[in-house]
Amino acid sequence: MVADDAFCPTCQIIQPPDLDRNFFQLLGMPVAFSLDARQLQSTYQALQKQFHPDRFVRRSATERRLSLEHVTRLNQACQVLSDPLARSEYLLASLAPAATGQGAPEAGDPDFLLEVMEQREALAAVELTDAGAAEQLAGLRHQAEERMAHILVTLTTLFASCAPGVGPEKYRQIAQVNHRLRYHRRFLEALDQAEEKMLAGEDD
Amino acid sequence: MDVLLDIAEPGQSLLPHDPRARSGRQRVVGIDLGTTFSLVAAIDLEGRPVCMPDADGRVALPSVVHYAQDGSVLVGHDAVMQALLQPQRTISSAKRLLGRGLAELSAGEGGGQTPLPLLDGEGGMVCIALAERVLSPVEVSAEILKSLKKRAEEALGAPLHGAVVTVPAYFDDAQRQATKDAARLAGLEVLRLVNEPTAAALAYGLDAFQESDGRQGLFAIYDLGGGTFDVSILRLDRGIFQVLATGGNSRLGGDDFDQRLVDHLLREAGIEKPGPHLLQACRQAAREAKERLSGSEEADVAVPLPDGSTLRRLIRRDQFETWITDLVQSTGLVCRRAMKDAGVTAAALQGVVLVGGSTRIPLVRRFVAQLFQREPLCDLDPDRVVALGAAHQADLLAGNDATELLLLDVTPLSLGLETMGELVEKIIPRNTPIPAARAQDFTTFKDGQTAMAIHVLQGERELVSQCRSLARFELRGIPPMVAGAARIRVSFRVDADGLLTVSAREETTLVEQSVVVKPSYGLSDGQIEQMLRDALVHGAEDLRLRLLNEARVEAERVLGAVGAALQQDGELLDGAERAQVEAATLRLWEAARGEDHEMIGRVMTQLDKETAFFAQRRMDRSIRAAMTGRHIADFS
Known about the structure:
The structure holds two protein chains of two kinds.
Chain A: H1 23-26, H2 37-51, H3 61-82, H4 84-95, H5 110-124, H6 133-160, H7 168-203
Helix pairs in contact in A: 2-3, 3-4, 4-7, 5-7, 6-7
Chain B: H1 2-7, E1 28-32, E2 37-43, E3 49-51, E4 61-62, E5 64-67, E6 73-75, H2 77-85, E7 90-92, H3 102-106, E8 118-120, E9 126-129, E10 134-135, H4 137-156, E11 162-167, H5 173-185, E12 190-195, H6 196-203, E13 218-224, E14 229-237, E15 240-249, H7 254-269, H8 276-293, E16 298-304, E17 310-316, H9 317-342, E18 351-355, H10 362-372, H11 385-397, E19 406-408, E20 415-419, E21 423-428, E22 436-442, E23 452-458, E24 468-475, E25 488-494, E26 500-506, E27 511-516, H12 525-538, H13 540-569, H14 575-593, H15 597-610, H16 612-627
Parallel strand pairs in B: 1-11, 11-12, 13-18, 15-19
Antiparallel strand pairs in B: 1-2, 2-3, 2-4, 5-6, 5-7, 8-9, 9-10, 13-14, 14-15, 16-17, 20-21, 20-23, 22-25, 23-24, 25-26, 26-27
Helix pairs in contact in B: 4-5, 6-11, 7-8, 7-9, 9-10, 13-14, 13-15, 14-15
């Protein structure tokens, strides 16, 4: 088990979480962008079985509090690692904290800005009450998802080439790609809202 | 005593001469606190969950409370009898008012469920006005819980150690807190608040299905009760019930179907303003008709009118279905959204489980089958399944059940803060696994700003006015700085019961303010204590019994701990010392069988003194064990 030292070897009582451990270490995953989702899930489940507050209901208040802290952090770690964007941002922040703020499209990514604006305009043009609205929204979703999949491949390559001592330019590139991913994520959220409005219109 | 308790395994054997020693189980129950009726269940000797019946063999306790003129309180069937005679003293469906404000109720759905006048109570919470007293829905719910607690304690022959109480998955923070307050008021130790659909999944033993085919144990739980609707999408994997997404409407249920029937009856009879008696009679007739229409194609309704005549109607099932079809269909959007949040399609599901009495309605079943593209599972009684699952969960939490099942749940609604322009910034999005914590940094927008208002909201919409306000507080004492220089970190924490705490801190000076997000809408601790005191004034006997029960439970816990310590480390004592410890425990055991809670307390303190040397030796042993790198277990 990954976190054996979280219990006192003598009294078997739960100890405070080790906050120096990053989310990858917490979940026993290699510190890398590529990730085995199945392994993540199975480690997460095993740790939940050890630490979940339900296992400490009749223990002392301190033990209950510590269990809560462990699992709160575990949940957060799993959420960050499960989501490619959050994972990429988290990894970049740990590799090169200074690079995180860089690479905004407003500063030097005009082609991407144009692409985003076209997408937004296409979404705004969809008449939600039209018969073909669902199909148009699905088309936009498909397009956005393809672009995101493409970005994920780029990110994997970029992170894989980040050997120790790599220059700041590489990290700036990653920061830029993260920004693109974030834009697409927001666009998908806008699509969700449009779909919701459309469905609500159908049901009422 | 602390030392003894810490070393002893919890829940281990009681002393050998205690007749309960053989079982060694914690007395825990699951309670389904429902809108129309409530149930209590426990695990029987064969390890199966069963609902506990009342003296007349009925398991469902109508969630109806009658406050008689003489100050006495009737709960359940007796209160239902009174509902027709004295509607203005009888409260039903109080769950719909739990944790709600008057403004939001009169604003739309959910109102008009009780024929009694509603008032704005303390803390913005709605209250119910009876002839000579004003009651909060928390107090009414506490009466129901008390009645179930009494039933369980009579059946088990001793006070309860704790209970799991279920809540609709879609209950917000205010409603959860109000439920917990009600339990506290009823003198129940809440082991956990568990979401109703999750409890139902546990009752169905869905984990057993998981191995049967290639799909990864994905289930939808469709829960339509008397007053609330919930849907949860769960994944079952290696003994873990993981909720992927949940959704619902905490103001939609069978009550609304009844209301539609009532509206039609009154309209056809040309009655515009029915009095409370007539309304109550109509409602009861409507409910009965609705229930009959699930089994037959038509139902007779007869309601006595004030002028002495009788309103008679024959209602056909297809008529009833057209009256409620929009309500049923509105659950479809919620289900589709939950599936989307969970990232699953209807085809990927392994099954759909029906929970709640309203899923007996044939229209609901057809709708669910069509929506999820499969026939729903309904092997268990939909009225009992939540209570049965809650009993199972209580048993797991108490450590009575050695299986390693675990429930992992999520937040039903997004939690956020008000930002500039009356917008809500989400801090913890809906369907985040709990317990959860997130922090967000804010800054000051004016030079020299020394305070910052924090407004906590729950809901999915973008505007503050469209979300539920949970709490407001102010972070003061920020040292004057230029605009944008202060760094204010606002932290949200949601615990395993789904309850929120918010704190704010200025990071450069560490000025901190923290609130448990409770006093702004619910009952403050002071109010609850006042209510407890008020209740106790009405019955000094209650107080004595309560203290006695508490002392007995504590005594039992201590006896269990000493017994386990003797078993584990008995060889640390010589014959005389062992006899001394045993004599002290026997005295406590005797005292616990008596009726004097103060005596139990004194004997417990005495036992503590007389066994201090034993605790000390056990400590020494465990320290020696640590120094030689061996576990305590290695010595035995």
